[in-house]
Design a protein that fits this description.
The chain has helices spanning 15-24, 36-43, 54-63, 96-105, 125-135, 159-165, 175-185, 198-229, 233-240, 263-270, 276-300, 326-336, 362-366, 386-392, 407-412, 464-467; strands at 5-9, 28-32, 67-70, 78-81, 114-117, 146-149, 168-172, 193-197, 307-311, 340-344, 357-358, 371-374, 397-400, 416-419. With 507 residues, it is of the alpha/beta class. The chain binds ligand SAJ. Ligand SAJ is lined by residues 153-156, 209, 212, 216, 249-250, 252, 255-257, 259-260, 315-316, 501, 504, 506-507.
Length: 507
Amino acid sequence: MRFHSLCVLGLGYIGLPTASTFATNGLQVIGVDVNRRIVDILRNGEIHIQEPGLRDLVQAAFGSGNLRVAEQAELADAFLITVPTPILLDKRADLTAVRAAARAIAPHLRPGNLVVLESTSPPRTTVDVVAPILAESGLEPGRDFSLAYSPERVLPGQILRELVENARVVGGVNRASAEAGRELYSAFVRGEIVLTDATTAEMVKLMENTYRDVNIAVANEFAALAERFGVDVWEAIELANRHPRVAVLRPGPGVGGHCISVDPWFLVESAPEQTDLIRQARLVNDRQPGRVVARLEAALGGLRGKTIAALGLAYKADVDDLRESPALEVARQLAAAGATVRTYEPNAPTATAAGAQAVPSIEAALDGADAMVLLVDHRGWASLDPAGAAGAMRGRVVFDTRGVLPRAAWGQAGFRLHVLGAGSPLPLQGGPSAASRGAGEGEGGGGSANRRGPSIPSRENRGTAAAELDDEAAGSERPPLREGTPAEGEDEPSARPRRPAPGTPDA
Ligand code: SAJ
């Protein structure tokens, strides 16, 4: 291995785990962050981000004597750029940090060095933005030093394992640069290391996330169509996905996080005239929070003066990350429309949306509420106790935007359960109404017994009558709200199996 020392610029979600992993695999690593606070926290043996196993890894890296942190770049055999590339208000990538990192490296560059950009970037950033800045050193990229792009593809929550095990794409400005990149990453990567050119590697990353965004957009459009035609989209997707070459993702309240909701714009920015579909998919997904709000408004007969419990604010299940979260947007819009909105996010208890109020528990959110909206399918929330909710709430409207609540159980507890993607059927002309086929507005227990298979639910097991139980019958006692995942073997006959959508290892 010709690379013994490594300078990592940017110690965030990717930079810190990567720097620490290189250090525990024998490289002399200097981790650089321009944020003094982060450097101080790390020097004090703490970490500034939450990721399972990261604290131990960082401590092991410091313990090995191979990791140091600093505010400025230093001489090294190789340099990694792992800084953020946020999106500007006009949906263009903000490459300020990438440029600054390249400028910080240039004075320390020596012949034979390797520079790798990992930050998600618009196509050609490595050759058109980074290479010219580094060339100001007087050294030529590809000839005097190696330059490559290698996208990170790790899943928050599983970063440490995926960093090591995932396949890694390394794109060089020339073949020698790609091979130099492979040599560096082979220090710890156990997945396949695939070589290509720098711009292809940039495209690959953007294509992966754009593909997901477009797929989710079509799922969201299917959900809207299903509501219109009285179809249950969750059942329909499950059935469609039995086709061996179909893999529709899941609809929901929108797409959040700092990757999938952002990266497609990098392609739109680079070629606006060739990205109609990609732009449209973004707009479809960004419209979802508004659709959730409109449906709640219809269910409640208006929002002004209503008290709404909004469960979950994170951008997806079991993370504490609120960036670009559609749940935040739903809560904000509800509050802006005059509702009193109580939000509960167990992974970020003090966070809330503009105009909303953070509360410390599900009970506090539901207490006296007119409606509950489930925005994130955190672990265990599919088995929230409907009887407990009925005891706590004033109203009986529940809106499940993730399609996870067992419908019969909520119907039996007296709730009118609205489910995203399952709506009022259109009347059929000259035949039995869609409702008599059992679509049941997708509400109040509709179709719960058919979750496991393709059979059309019988009228008896839809539980619509239960949904119309009056509030008294729902019981005045307040059993504690259960928040646990059912124990293994403790099946919930009416619950939709929480099956990951294809290609969603985390979900
Ligand atoms: N979502 C849906 N329906 C789905 C799947 C996701 O509405 O069927 C929503 C989620 O609720 C969330 C958003 O989309 O709001 C994004 O979630 P995600 O799990 O698809 O993606 P991220 O942003 O958490 O992480 C992704 C990862 N990609 C996956 O294929 C799971 C990760 O591998 C990438 O490295 C990361 O983006 C990244 O850095 O780009």
